[in-house]
Amino acid sequence: MGVDRAAGLLAAARPRLAAAVRADLRALPLAGAAFACAALLFVLDDYDAAGKRAILREARRILRPGGRLVLAAYRPGDAWIAAHWRLPADGVEPPRALRAHLAAAGLVPEAEEAVAATAEDGTARRFTLLVARRPGP
Questions:
Q1: Which of 28, 53, 83, 130 is the most exposed place for a label (fewest CB within 10 A)?
Q2: DSSP conformation letters of 7-50
Q3: The CA-based dihedral angle spanning residues 16, 21, 23, 25, taken in that order and rounded to the nearest 10 degrees
């Protein structure tokens, strides 16, 4: 299932998805405790701290107890992001800030990895992968 508030992005992704939902990630039209796993891939960087925490609270709400959240976020210093995106001042945050947002939303960080890659245009990319768990059995 894919969720996005942009109709164009959903239309492009729809052929690869079992279901597509147009919604704001801060207020998902999904049942609570319905998913064993959820992923937020390069989404939080578009929001300020309050928006990040609201999205993470929604992720916790839709996860089953013991469910996992996979999070990918850009790292400060990513040259491609600096050149191509206008993000909130607190959009791209260091991993310690992301862990704090996860904890504030009631999610328990379990694993973290710093990733360095090269984009198709040759630009060096830096991002963090985090896995967090909703407490419970």
A1: 83
A2: HHHHHHHGGG-S-EEE--TTS--S-TT-EEEEEEES-GGGS-HH
A3: -60
Q: Please give the Cα distance from 98 to 76 (Å, whole number).
A: 12
- pTM value > 0.70: yes
Whether CATH 3.10.20.90 fits 35-133: no
Residues with Cβ within 8 Å of 112's Cβ and at least 6 positions away in sequence, in order, are 95, 99, 128, 129, 130, 131
Domain ranges across the chain: 35-133
The beta strand positions in the chain, using DSSP E, are 2-4, 20-22, 35-41, 63-74, 108-118, 124-133
- pLDDT by residue (tens digit) across 12-71? 998 999 899 999 999 999 999 999 999 999 899 888 889 999 999 999 999 999 999 999
Tokens of 5: 């508030």
Strands 124-133 and 63-74: antiparallel
